[in-house]
Structure formats: C-alpha cells, structure tokens
What does this fold into?
Amino acid sequence: MKAHLSIILPVFGLAAISGILSLVFALRAASYLNKHSQGTPISFWDVRFHPLRYFKQYRELTTKENGKPGTLFPMWLVAISLFAVLMIFLIILILTTISSS
It folds into this structure.
C-alpha cells in the first residue's frame, strides 16, 4: 500500500499541474479572441466548459492573420491529453490500492 501511495501523490500533482495549464492555455486563447475578433464578447466561464469551440475560432483567426495556426492550441492539446492519461492512471492506481488492501 505504501508503494502505491508514493506513486499516487506525484501522479496527482502532475495531473493537477497539467489540468491547470490546460485551463490557462484556454483562457489565454479566449483573451486573444476577445482582443482580435469582432463579434460577441467571450464568456470566460463558458471557456472552461467548451474550450474546443473557442480553440476552433482561435485556430481560424490566427491562420487568417498569420498564415498558420497559433501556438496555444497544440500546447492546450498536449496539456489536456496528459491530464486525461494521468487521471486514468491515477484511477487505476487507486482501484488497485483499494482492492489489494
């Protein structure tokens, strides 16, 4: 059980960091959209629940302005993917710890 606990805490820490980073990248993309797009203002509360909608707009806008997509989308994609993998691994670790005790 102690061996699992020494693995669970760092995995939880990495998952928390990657989750926070994905939120930061989504909010930065929404801020960029707020400054550079004409239209309705962006709801920062809504960005947390529907980030893909805003990243699609962000990618289209940055591609139109610069000829290539902005860098926030790939960074967000890596962070959210890492978060998902770490959370699945964390759930498996917790379930194996509970079943072994």
